[in-house]
Amino acid sequence: MNICVFLSAADLDERYVGPTREFAELLGRSGHTLVWGGSDVGLMKVLADGVQAAGGRLCGVSVEFLTHVVRPGCDEIVIAKDLGERKALLLDKADAVIMLVGGTGTLDETTDILELKKHELCDKPVVVVNTAGFYDGLRTQLVRMEAEGFLPVPLSQLMYFADTGKQALDYVEKYIEERAQAAIAN
């Protein structure tokens, strides 16, 4: 399975690095391909190092103005002309999306996909890994949006919040398996 992971390219505290490293190892050992921003810095590097060391494949999708930080040795690397094209390519190459800790870029990428899901233009699972309560505020805001009628579909149809990378990967694998079984039955 090709799993797109959005996350920070910043060098962060061990409370975020450790869980990212654990998730990377799990993803690589599971035989999945990491589809990510292609950078060889910060948490993006931690994730790619771990996936590659555990036997997983790397598919990077970078953008022209970030080519100076592109990771060498990827199984596949694509350079987009701008951020909009990059987001489209990341989603196109992915079977599922998992959001780890990140800043405004990570939030932008994720909310873009949620908007597509809201309009039934994307049916891929989206999971937010709430490491160390990092996304508690986002969850609170989305629950409020749902309660006050700002979401035309239930939040549970747009995304799933997981506490760990293992929960996220288990959810995605089950979602994809159930969808495949439903397609066979129809």
Tell me what you see in this structure:
This protein has 186 residues and is α/β, with parallel strands linked by helices. The protein has one domain: 3-Layer(aba) Sandwich (Rossmann fold). It has helices spanning 14-29, 42-53, 83-93, 104-118, 136-147, 155-158, 165-185; strands at residues 2-6, 33-36, 57-63, 76-80, 96-99, 126-129, 160-162. A 7-stranded parallel sheet has the order 4-3-2-1-5-6-7, with helices on both faces. Helix 4 (104-118) links the parallel strand 5 and strand 6. Helix 1 packs parallel to helix 2 (42-53). The model has no long low-confidence stretch (mean pLDDT 95).
In brief:
With 186 residues, the protein is α/β, with parallel strands linked by helices. The protein has helices at 14-29, 42-53, 83-93, 104-118, 136-147, 155-158, 165-185, and strands at 2-6, 33-36, 57-63, 76-80, 96-99, 126-129, 160-162. Helix 1 runs parallel beside helix 2.
Which descriptors would you attach to this protein?
seven-stranded parallel β-sheet; single chain; 17% strand; alpha/beta; 186 residues; Rossmann fold; globular; 49% helix; 7 helices
Helix proportion of residues, in percent? Answer: 40-55%
Average pLDDT across residues? 95
Low-pLDDT sequence parts? none
Could you tell me the strand content as a percent range? 15-25%
Per DSSP, the total helix count is 7
